[in-house]
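Recap slide: 6,7-dimethyl-8-ribityllumazine synthase, sequence and predicted structure.
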Amino acid sequence: MLHIKTIEGQLDAKGLKFAIVATRFNDFIVDRLIGGACDYLQRHGCDRENLTIVRIPGAFEMPLVAKKLAHSGKYDGIIALGAVIRGATPHFDFVSNEASKGLAQACLESGVPLGFGLLTTDNIEQAIERAGSKAGNKGAEAAAAVLETVRVMEQL
């Protein structure tokens, strides 16, 4: 069988610096996501002093702040955490779509990996499930994704 070179990221956060952009809106959910992300990174070797949490009003503001952090050169990875919960108006669609597109654009323009932990749910119950209940903690999953991506990017 032919040998195929495979590049994989090691889940070792030692020496890396991360910024977490977290919304204040729906903070009872977002605080759980932050806890999951910080716990994951620390369990994988990241020192507390290498974590910075930036609190912002809501999801619509995330792309601008993530872009500024990514371009600062201070961080190896950015983690975006928030919760947009559907209501009775189309506001949910506008906010979640623009935040998602903007975060992707910030990541691509800067070349700095970004972990996407912006929950977009139909109701509060779904958000709770994704913030450490039945469906795991999406904050921890976003941290895992950004850590692995940082380590892959180092090898490219």
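The chain has one domain: 18-155.
The first strand starts at residue 18 and ends at 23.
(End of recap.)
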